[in-house]
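The passage that follows is intended for readers who have already worked through the single-chain material. We present the inputs for a multi-component assembly, then the predicted structure in tokenized form, and finally a short commentary. You are encouraged to pause after the input and sketch how you expect the pieces to fit together before reading on.
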Amino acid sequence: MTNKTFTLDINTLDGPLGHRVYTALRNKILTMAFEPGTVLRKGALCEQLGVSRSPVTEALNRLSTDGLVDIIPQSATRVSQFSIFELREEAFLREAVEVAAVAKVAQDHTDEQMTVLSRNLKMQGLLVEDADFQGFFEADLEFHELILAFTGFPKVAATAGQMSLQLRRARMLILPEPGRPKQAVAEHQAILTSIRAGDADAARSAMSLHLRQLITRIEPLERQHPEYFRPN
Amino acid sequence: MTNKTFTLDINTLDGPLGHRVYTALRNKILTMAFEPGTVLRKGALCEQLGVSRSPVTEALNRLSTDGLVDIIPQSATRVSQFSIFELREEAFLREAVEVAAVAKVAQDHTDEQMTVLSRNLKMQGLLVEDADFQGFFEADLEFHELILAFTGFPKVAATAGQMSLQLRRARMLILPEPGRPKQAVAEHQAILTSIRAGDADAARSAMSLHLRQLITRIEPLERQHPEYFRPN
DNA sequence: ACAAGTCAACTAACATGTCAGTTGAGGGGC
DNA sequence: GCCCCTCAACTGACATGTTAGTTGACTTGT
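Having made your guess, compare it with the prediction:
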């Protein structure tokens, strides 16, 4: 059993040390480079990064309030494991916010906003055709962020992102199913059509239907990767 | 101009020092005992509370992420002022979550839950009759928290509370209008009736209508108390 | 009176030391 | 082989010192 050596880079970021450490660790966790259950030893982190305990402690505390690490007091800190219950909880909250957002955007939107969404959607179609799933993944994320931003409330997008971190992490485990990306694009198209028509109810339904696909596809992960899930 | 002396009590609380300081300051801010704009001097707080800078710094940082204080780096920390825009933003988010919650509760609820809500509602009626507005205020809060809790998702209530802190603080400024409490009880009644009928759409509408009363009554505060609001 | 430069007060960010509490691996007794 | 106990390793919480950056008031020159 060799000790895995993680390449933690802090120098490519800017800002205060504490924030850089937080961002670096957060990325590692969200991309599953740090697997759930991984023990984060504070001393080792300090040594690797060449910083003192202060910024590392600050980073770990923020990650803890984010729910990305579990701190066992006086003992250890480890990357948090998934919990199906928590994932359902986050899916509920995310749906609540995104559905409200899309309804508001359906009611009042500018032509320019529609153009941006439409352009993004076309790009999604091209990326799926080219089988560039990584690119599609990012365009998908942007589509949702655009709708949240078009509410005119910047904190809405921030809050929605913050409240569904586990969901975002778990999504990394989903195997690409044939046909799913194409289906997702179609669902996005339905959402956009409803928005453009100013039909808030239809937009709500379309968004709800779309978002529920994700949690449905996440549920089976508990059996496929029990090692990543918290025992109940 | 005498220096106001604040009685900050930490000894009546328990848990880590940092958490106690946070709770004490948070309460002062949320009850408007610390008015928006008040400068919080770290050194003075340390001295008053008899603790070092560590727990105070931790508390102020948490309050900063809560949006309850504004930290001007290397200069000062002050209790944050209101912003109508932010309040509207919080109202939007709160409505999104509570509307989704009430719809879910309308779809699946137990008789026991209905009994609890019904009991709370009757209590509201009695408190309004007795003109116990403080008591009504708390019962009102509980009514909403119960619905959030009945979703079965504990984080939903926590998130909803966390995302509407400014709203909660601003509500302290609203002058009691004659007839408003009675009207609020009627709106609560409509919500409960819709839930009991299992009518998710009606529950959504009733909750939406009810919640929009608050922000409507908060908007005029910017003129009545401009000193509490951030200049735009 | 007024603009510009100066300085004291305050602070964030970070490093480091201390103390007490938790955990798990290994050792001793049965 | 099994249980319990001890102890080293690690940690959270807190105190404190240092450095460098910001601000506002006060002084100074005009």
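Commentary: Residues 41-43, 57, 71-77 of chain A lie near DNA strand D (CB under 10 Å from a C1'). The two ends of chain A are 28 Å apart (CA to CA). How closely did your sketch match?
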